[in-house]
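Researcher: Structure for this, please.
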Amino acid sequence: MSAIIDSNAVGAIFARPLTDGSFEAPVQEYLRSVGALRPMLLLAFAPKSAGTYFRQAAIQAIGGELVRMCHAQAGRDGTLYLPNVLARCLDNETPHTITHIHMQALTGNRNFIEAFGLKPVIMIRDLADMLASLLDMFETDPVARAEGVNCQIPYNFLELPRDVKLDFMIDVIAPWYASYFATWKSFVDDAPRTVCVLHYRDFCRNPGETLHKAITHSGFVTTREKCLRSLEEVWRAKEDYRFNKGVSGRGRRYFSSAHFARLHRLLSYYPQLERWVPDLLGDAMELAKTG
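Model: Predicted structure, token format:
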């Protein structure tokens, strides 16, 4: 790494942010100037919303590389780490930066994003389908179980009856997803030009266009044709990554009407999610209301 860590950078690293995660004027202005030096593709996707496939295709499309920008991956509910972001912005000899972090748009994270002028991208997918895919991963991948989703996965998870596992996904994991989408919806409402919102159904119908939208939103230049070729190349190597089936509607085969009613109730706690609820519950919308 050839980043120039001068006194300004050191001062920013050791500057104490305010309690809401924002920075005072001199540091704020410096971070914004540094953030303008290089674009960054910040994929703040929720787990199991095609993030791994998407990021690998983006790497191909812009000649970039995946860089960890949080302090640690374990726990999945990430927070951007100032030294990592600052060093990457100051290094103009490395490939384009792509980072993939399961991050809520909580106040501190929003202030960090705004300090650097970042342009995050999120993906909306059917909630039950994401939970079904995540359950599959928990059942087959010990690393995924160790990481959890801002929670601890029971050590005896594999031994639990199927109905208990499904209840766990709804009772423990789903609330994180509800909060995740609620925080991002608030951010979108407040700063619509900052956040790029993608829809999984659009990605399935027109993947090249969807990838192109995310990349150009973040400040990179590429073509739709290059994006489509990149997606095709990565798909051929899908066994090298943790790609799941990506089948829409699978959640309806996993969860009961009572489960869907619980999901609907979780989402209803956040009024700002009203317009996103049909996308998050999909074809099970009516089932959720009557379950």
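Researcher: Any notable elements?
Model: The first strand starts at residue 40 and ends at 43. Residues 76 and 149 are 5 Å apart (CA to CA).
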